Amino acid sequence: MTLLSTHQKKLLQGLLRFIDKSSPTQQKFNEIVKKDLSDVQGNSSLENRKSQWEYLLKNAVFDLAATEGDALKDENTKYYTQLRNRLDLVLTFTEHDACEQNLPFTVLQDLLETQTIASCSHIFSWIEERSERLTEGLVPQKGKALILLRTLNDLLRRLSKMGSTTIFCGRILTFLSGVFPLGERSGVNLRGEYGPTWEGVQVPVKAEPEHDETMADAKDAVKEEDKMQVDEETKKPALEDKKDDFYNTFWSLQLPFSKPPLFAQPNTFDEFKDAVDKVIPVIREATIKERAMMGHRAGSSASLKRKREPEPEERSTVTEYFFAKFLTSPELLDLEIADTHFRRQFLFQLAILLSHLQTFTKAAKATWATTRNRSLQMDFTLEPAQAEWVQETYAKVIEEFKSTSPNGRAFTDTVTSILEREKNWVKWKNELCTQFDKEPWSEEVDGHKAGLEEATRKVREKLREPTEDWPHTLGSESLTEIWGMGYRDLSDLQNPFRAGDVKDFVKKLKQEDGKIALRQKQLAKIAAAAEARAAAQAKTKAVADVAMEVVPPATVETPASTPAPVRPPASNPAGSPIHPSLPAKPGSPMVAEPATSVPALAPTPTPAAAPATAPAPPAPPTDDHIIKLEEHKQRWSWLALRTARDHHLGHFGKIGTGDIEQLAKEIEAEKRLPKGSEELAVTEEVGSASPMTSTKVLVAGSDSTTAKVLVTGGSGYIGSHVIYTLQKTRRYKVISLDNGHNSHPNALSRISALSRSELPSDASERDIDTTEIESHSCDLTRRDEIRAVFEKYGKGGIWGVVHIAAYKAVGESVEIPLTYYENNVTATLYLLQTMQEFDCTRIVYSSSATVYGIPPTIPIPETTRLKADSPYGKTKVMSETMLDDLCHSDSKWSAISLRYFNPAGAHPSGQIGEDPKGRPGNLLPLLAHMAIGRVDAKTLQVFGNDYPTPDGTCVRDYLHILDLASGHLLALEALDANSKVFESTPDARYRAYNLGQGKGVSVLQIIDAMRKATGFDFKYEIVGRRRGDVPDLTADPALAEKELGFKANEDLAVMCRDLWNFQSKNPEGYGKW
Fold it and tell me: Domain of life of the organism in this record (predicted)?
């Protein structure tokens, strides 16, 4: 050893002792190394000094690395601290150009190969901490970058054989992704290598025993009674040979899986095809068996047998991976194929190879076979017949994926996505990894490139400025205009105007006034814009004249926009032969008199002729459209007066000429006057919606035994069947209230006709009278309208109420909750207040099973806590709470709430059924409309298939509509003073009952039942869950069966049959709305 190297060695040893003892900072490191390097500078050439330092530093690192085995036995070892100090020393010497730049990487490469995985983790932690210094000046595909990439890839290969180093592998990959660009091809295998080749697992074929005379003599000596046993034993080797043959065939496929270039050899494809055709049926048979077993387990009760706990020696730290090569045999292959994960692994291998082979058709190869990377290609082309088999087999594999469980379809989507991305990877690799990184977005700003933040600074600053007030008070111009026209509800837009009360005409006239005001505003804007343009033109002309030194005229005439000639509205006639206040019908001959104003909505009547004592103010802008609207107003006014003349002719003298709004006020004032006598029978003419002409209404004081029962929502689906059930008893006179929101008045006429047809030939007048329905159009959210109905019958005139009317769509309630609270809760409150005022204290309330929300137990008993999830369900909870509180506060009240979910079906005659407006909100009528063609939808949306139910879709308790109607009748009769159903609640006469079959059916089961009933092939798709839906609502009707005598007799098939009977007999329902 030279004198210089000895001096260097002493310096290094002293340096090592110092750093192991004091653990200096990086700055101190640099100072010490710089001092030692200056001590040996000039004694020899730079290259000699570098080689000497490299030799000494390597020895220092590897001498310590040799002691790793002893260090691992010591819990308090300083091995890793000393090793990090030596690596820091190597890096620092390299940074001072005392060693080659590749030295740290070659040291790391050799060091990682000699250390255990635990030590490698410590070394890699040092690499992560020093990454900024290590990668300084690193150029991909050159020098130290290649060494670093090769070193870490070798480490990854070591780690891939372990089952507990996933986090370590992730750290390495994260480091590589941060150091090397995304498209860096240094780590890509460009030579077309496919990994290790399959070594093969095969059972040797057994040699047949030689036939000799001794064996023949032995066979001849076998007794006759033993021949059957010998025949059975000789079959076993044949079965074993067959099993061994399939075993060899199955595992032989691993060779082409691992080495696709073998297809370039003759007969390889044919052997591969024969083997696949033998294996696929076995795979499919195993899947079918598994699905059958799962179906059997799903339908059977859970086993009560306690599962055996695995022994400690049976536990394994690796549960997701196994090496089939070493854990298989002919005896185990059947068990392996029965495992879903094993089959999926094999099918995935097969799908990868088949997808790869599809790129070797003649047409596919033409798109990539001319690239420079010839090493990736193989001399093989699929013939047309071979390509057809590959495509068919690939399709079979995909279908087989879908059949596996669990989540076969989701797994299939994942596989196809991976294969599609693999194609892009192979293409990029075949094209020698072309660069695809893009530069950050930039834009030219003030002569230089600016990034996203700088380029958008002005725009973002402008966004921070306060915005101007929005010109449209209701959000958009269209909505604001519609509101200005007098429309206040969606029903105003959806439903055409239908002549009814005088108030309806007042509303229509206000809408016409709104249209006129909107048109006048538009004309004013047009005129203002024209004046502004004219003023701008005049100003431009004046400036031009000054520039030309032309003296302008003294007065500049600016053309003003002249409004269109105003056509005076048609004047009213002098009078009408009916009454002086009633104008003649529009279009009749006019009397030559001074023009009077059009019937207006102002509370003060307009005089017939105004004296022209003062100049009239400028008329508002008008055009033909406004004139037409004024004519419409006159026509509506005339129709209003014609409608009111028969009943309210006495008010015509108070209102002046055509003041419809004043007429409406007078009519309302008349209604509030007390009646002269409430004990006389009142005769009322039923409106045009009912086929009846007139009937005598029995009020308090009548000697008839027929009790009057008021049914809200009487012309609706449930209400119509409840009325029919009440009429069948011949004990009730039914009063129907409905506003026609989701019902048809023709339903009532059909109910009456149906009830009359069931009367005996000798029916009494009282029985005939019970078949007639007294119908009233009434909005329950308007207290005065409810009161007007009760006033007709006086106090005590109505025996009880069946309250059914409500909005009932769960999904819609989530979108418009306030509307549901108003219609369902407020209406119930007003109804109860009016009933209290008129001594009507018996009510059956139509509630819902949605009051339970997501119930803790199925089926649901009445004792379940009330916790609705949707606004609709919450309105039912609130209404039930009001009834409960009312009955507790006043002993005169009796109330029963009926909780059910989905009524279905129709009357067997097909005369009455469900006919909702628009698209049905419930499943069964929606299916019926799809089958009959009323709903233009090819596919039904099923909201969610991941609920904890047998098929994943929501489960509901359906009951026949007539069974439900009979439940209402039983509840109404239980409100009698002698009823015993309230004995269990002596402090209040209030009860709640579940009505149902006690057996739930899912959405998919309903679709199948309707398919059988209609013969229509319904298509459906699974979409996401809908807010407010709960998984299972199956009622426990035991309490209603015990206390009310209720029983739901009809099953789902009868419901679907009766529903389809009504729909097929009435394709358009009760008729056009």
Answer: Eukaryota
